[in-house]
Specification:
Length: 217
């Protein structure tokens, strides 16, 4: 489990692609300190498993499902990435609960600079819009952010100077993709409410139809 508070702006060192997977080598001296085989590190909000570490770098394998659902497949050597280690039990939850399980990708459509911050508009898949609410939380490329405005097809966030300076969101421009992870609590609530409605509608002693009990995905 992560918090969406980026620890380090790392760099892609090498990418080895195969037919249905890829192996990444990334530089991140902070997050690799004490890391070992099997540990987790979030890369642009994607939870990856460490294969090995050496000299401030680590290697991770990425399967086809992850490449297809996230923006990791477009990364190339030299690209900067947001890195975060899992939250330690008993640690401070500085952002919000982030699983590192990306729900889909969005696209930056507009950047409006202000005196002390920048407002960024991000287009999102319609299927994710119901989980995004004004003043709610969302992870964008692994960065925990508060939603300013929530629409049916996009949302806005305000980025403070620290976020602009220490994450990839400071350099991404209109047209660039970003990984999105909605608040997992919203998905659980939807699931529970869906089952509750199905049980209320079903006659006593009968099973609710699958199309009622299930949740649209």
């Amino acid at each position: 489990m992560f918090t969406g508070i980026v620890e380090e702006l790392g760099e892609v060192v090498a990418v080895e692609k195969s037919a249905d997977a890829a192996r990444f080598r990334l530089r991140g001296p902070v997050v690799t300190e004490g890391a070992k085989h099997g540990d987790s590190i979030a890369v642009n909000g994607v939870c990856l498993t460490v294969v090995d570490t050496a000299d401030g770098e680590f290697t991770a394998d990425v399967m086809a499902e992850t490449l297809n659902r996230t923006g990791l497949g477009a990364l190339a050597p030299g690209d900067r990435v947001n890195l975060e280690r899992p939250m330690a039990l008993g640690g401070r939850l500085g952002g919000h609960l982030v699983q590192g399980h990306v729900d889909g990708t969005g696209t930056i459509t507009e950047r409006v600079p202000g005196e002390n911050w920048e407002v960024v508009r991000i287009a999102m898949p319609a299927r994710l819009a119901r989980y995004v609410v004004e003043k709610g939380s969302i992870a964008v490329d692994g960065v925990s952010l508060t939603v300013v405005e929530a629409g049916e097809e996009d949302f806005t966030v305000s980025l403070i100077p620290t976020t602009l300076a220490l994450t990839t969101l400071g350099v991404k421009k209109a047209g660039d993709p970003v990984n999105l992870e909605v608040d997992v609590l919203a998905k659980y609530v939807e699931r529970l409410l869906g089952h509750g409605r199905a049980e209320a509608a079903a006659p006593a002693g009968t099973a609710a139809p699958a199309e009622i009990a299930g949740v649209v995905r």
